[in-house]
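Review form for a predicted model. The reviewer records the input and the model, then writes brief findings.
Reviewer: anonymous (R2)
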Amino acid sequence: MPQTDPKTIKAQLKKGELKNIYYIFGKNVPEVEKLTKQIIKAAVGDNEDFALNKLEGRYLDISELYDMIQMVPMMSEYNCILINDYNCEKPREVMAGIRAEDVNKKLLDALKDIPPQTVVIFNVTGFEVPVKNDFKTGRSVIKDKNKKLFDYAAKVGEAVECPIKSENELAKDIAASVSARGSLISLDNARELADMCQSDTLTIRNEIDKLCAYAGKNEITSDILHNLVHRQSDATFYKLADAVAAFNKRAAFDALDELMQDRDNRGAVLGNITASFIDMYRAACARQKGRQIADVKADFGYVWEFKVKNAFRDSSRMSIRRLRQCVEILRDTNMMLNSGSCDEKIVLEQTVTKMLMTKN
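Model under review:
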């Protein structure tokens, strides 16, 4: 069976159609998790405690999995098995003396004997499966070893990618979600909300809850968006981190001024600055140990590869000792902001000054 899409899976579930194997991945991680829950619900209903087995991919015992596959369901029509983050590129936490191909072959052999009463779900939420676009079919094609497992699931069950939606698609979803809560929002404002949240569906969902609680049955206007929603600005946080790394005082304070324009979310500003420096610290430690971007991405569960790439680039100009000092400065700043009333802007300006004074 060819690769399908989330809407098709949901339509099948409404009709009571269940397949014996599913493979679900994609950059839209909340959609991956949502679709996984819907399949589990269709398979076991409210009997997850008895009929659902959850397994971590990196610790998967294939002999144990085979026994689980053959089990008779308890208190439900189906026996359901969820395997999260099995990576065919590195199927074991420790790969010393083990070939990935051998482990993957044993897994595929175990999956060839799934009885009608068992549903096996593979989902990926902790690492990014690399894909390329097939111009002939218009579909995504997996570029690494995970393609073999994906293709097998597509052949005997269902395989689906959950990509990030376009702003227009998100705008329609936002408008429908807001309407379901009894509020109103125009498509233009819905598109603006998607842009403010950088199309991150989890962030959008949280902002919709907040906006609808504020607006009630009234319309969510552009003014309400600008007053209540914190515009995501990863690029500016990276500019600040890059400026500190380069000892560029003017660029650092220009970036800080831009971030501080959002007066209602200055705590989030410090959190994101800290996250940028922690990313760089991880990258610097990884480089020292000969690890690569893909290793850091997998080890720390990054969804977006560009964040790790930026961290590798920016950290190349800072020593581990200097990065550690910056993280400690940010830690102390967080304690200061939480300990009492103070002017956040002055405190953050002092923080950037301290980081600029550190030396490699």
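Findings: The longest strand covers residues 79-84.
Further findings: DSSP finds 17 helices and seven strands in the chain.
Recommendation: see findings above.
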